[in-house]
């Protein structure tokens, strides 16, 4: 019996025979079997994922990864971790990408129009508010000068000391509060990162879906939203100056997963410019020529988009879990329950 343990608690067979002229006649036949089925492997996976969350909470990435690798590929363990079927790696032309419904211009040139619009509206509101205050309270030109000087000082302090984090926190919080489209886009973006990372074999460590969330979880003012990964193996390779092709492929796909998700849902991407810049810096740091960079990016795009299309339902469920603040272990369990092994 698949996915279950068969326990024979008692097996009792009784046959009583009586003699008759020329034959033996069975009088009674009793057959009693009691069967208990329990999904022990399923319980084991659940227990491991709960322990995984505890290890991640403690910051023990190595122990967390060891737990996952111990169940990796087992029939009722973590079948999907690192098991994604990927396209052959070669230099793909732009026409080949278009044949697969990928327009690189709409995907690799994200412009966050939502936050840009919010920033412009805040600036207009500040000017209108200043004029209204000037008329209402008869503020003198000298007072306006000092107020403007004070605001300029605060803006400079934020830019220098916090990298613009306070301003970003205000704008991002307003965006999540008043724009449902922006809120949903950010969640879908991070769900794409989470799902692709897991499928290519990189364990997500945690996630944030807003600047306020990042401030509360990690105490950072310089993060709007993001997904962190257990990447000590990658860091070790980078520090050694030699990054394997397998590792580079994984992180290239992860870097482009957010913009690819937005592209598939909305037809273009707004967030993820920082992801693209980091990938570009990594490839330049590894000494890639422009041709080799194009080859890496195009393959990663095609591979990532096809994976996201194939597992659209799983990505949607992960996004829902992220919006509810579910743990990493819970999100992994959702992925495992949403994807059939034959679809990998």
From TrEMBL:
Leader peptide range in chain numbering: none
An MF annotation (GO) of this entry: metalloendopeptidase activity
SUPFAM superfamilies: FtsH protease domain-like
Annotated organism of origin: Glycine soja (Wild soybean)
Any coiled-coil regions, as ranges: none
Name of the protein in its database record: Stress regulated protein
Domain of life: Eukaryota
GO biological process: proteolysis
InterPro entries named among the record's database cross-references: Peptidase_M41-like (IPR037219)
